[in-house]
Amino acid sequence: MMGSRQLEYFRAVARELHFTRAAEALRIAQPALSQQIRKLERQLGVALFERNNHRVELTPAGTALLEHAERILADMAAVEDEMRGWAEGTRGRIRLGGARGLTARLARLLAEFSRQYPAIVVELLEMNTEEMVAGLYGGRLDAATVVRLPPQEEGRRLESLPLGEEPLVLVTTPSGPLAGKYRVPVASLDGVDLVCYPPGSVIREIVLSALADAGATPHIRFETREYSTARAMVSVGLAAAVMPRSVAEEPGQPVGVVRLDPEPTWAPSLAWPAGRRPGPALAAFIDFMARHPGLAS
């Protein structure tokens, strides 16, 4: 039977794809690590890595084992955290994925959560929804503020808690022709230069879907993962952008904020793995977020 140490050794090599670096991260000798991996491969009857003089790569069996290893080791860490929580009071560590448009509001809530639960450490990682869902499935995240869950997974592999709804708005240069308007049709964005977000961003999907529904052809001139970068480009007149209203109204470079008709919205949720009882730290965080449902309103 595989042991947790074998899985930790395998995961380290799978992440580094380099035996020497993995051995250094594990603080063991490289020959000992190689011996343990060969032993695991003999035990399982499959090759986990393709090796040659220039590189190390996962085999298909190794890729499958990595997903299981990430989840198993995360579960074991969660058990340890839960036992410490029961023994010492609510304490532990939460690896939280955060949507970029929620960072400012989430930071304020995390400050209050930390005051109420000073023994719980929250590690916040900014990601897009695709990355967060993959992190939840792979055991790399305990929870995430995702914008849209895959419909077939909600309630089966992931539990979720709605966090409110917020409109997306058009952001333009203050001197642009649309800046002085209160509301404009989405169709008026046909052919307008836009700053958009890369594939994997749900905000991108919402924006492109709204444009398509209005019969507008997007002209994506720039792509960025950061709202601050999009706002900087807008402020100097390079393009317009669509983003959450709370982000558009934050202090920063001067821009015009215009409502859209029809108004696209985003509705974030807190998501966590289903089928596994949350430990004390995560349970406390879920309860805290349930008592603060207006995160994105």
From TrEMBL:
- List the SUPFAM superfamilies: Periplasmic binding protein-like II, Winged helix' DNA-binding domain
Q: Does the keyword Cell cycle apply?
A: no
In the UniProt record, does the keyword Manganese occur?
no
Q: Which keywords has UniProt assigned to this entry?
A: DNA-binding, Transcription, Transcription regulation
Might you report a single GO cellular component term? protein-DNA complex
Taken from the record, one Pfam family name reads: HTH_1
Q: Which residues form the HTH lysR-type domain?
A: 2-59
Please give one Gene Ontology molecular function term for this protein. DNA binding
Instruction: Fetch the PANTHER family from UniProt.
Output: LYSR SUBSTRATE-BINDING, TRANSCRIPTIONAL DUAL REGULATOR HCAR-RELATED
Q: Which family does it belong to?
A: Belongs to the LysR transcriptional regulatory family.
Q: What is this protein called?
A: LysR family transcriptional regulator
What is the species of this protein? Actinomadura syzygii
